[in-house]
Amino acid sequence: MSRSTLADLVGAGPLLLDFDGPVCSIFAGYPAPRVAAELVALLDAEGVAMPAELRGEQDPLAVLRWAGESCTHEVTETVEKALCAAEVRAATVAAPTPFGREVILGAHARRVPVAVVSNNSAAAIEAYLTAHGLASYVNPIIGRAFADPRRMKPNPEPVLAAVHALRAAPEHCTLVGDSLSDIEAAHAAGVAVIGYANRDWKVAAFRSADVVVTSMGDIAEALSPVSPVSPEAD
Description:
Elements: H1 6-11, E1 15-17, E2 24-25, H2 32-45, H3 52-55, H4 60-70, H5 73-91, E3 95-96, H6 100-109, E4 114-117, H7 122-131, E5 141-142, H8 157-165, E6 174-177, H9 180-189, E7 192-196, H10 202-205, E8 211-213, H11 216-223
Parallel strand pairs: 1-4, 1-6, 4-5, 6-7, 7-8
Antiparallel strand pairs: 2-3
Helix pairs in contact: 2-4, 2-5, 4-5, 5-7, 6-11
């Protein structure tokens, strides 16, 4: 199924938001490369042999994926716990995405249910939403499955978990994501997808999405009869 207009997508049913990107930049104040390096150091401390390229990895989720594929479950749990703690810390200094707040509040005003479906930990998502006064507008929060990175997007499982929690049909839901894994997960789950192209290269890369936007303000505007103003500082 493909729907061609943004207005159709945001008004069709529940809105599922990826977290890091559409809602905030979680590692803006506690950079992802630093977190990844800390996880690699933890693997070193555990005596884990790893490929040279992993030592230069800048994405902490990629380090967790590697641990899940290559290490014992106990080691994966250790990495998971460290990443969860780092994400909660990062959430305290995360940078709000322009118009991300307006999308959530605009959906609430339209009585459109909003869920968050993320490869980040639920604890970090909850911490951010609570700190920014948004927790009461988002339900459910579907975060990363603990120490089982195979279940992260692009696996459709977390998307389908949100759909089930909302008691909705997949074809009535729309996921907003800023990665190819979001688009792949949405397609596999049977939900529509808005690609949030927050980098120039993503506009062409997201061509398989139902709609591509370059600002969350486009979605906020589609949810409101009044054009959104510049986002207020949190």
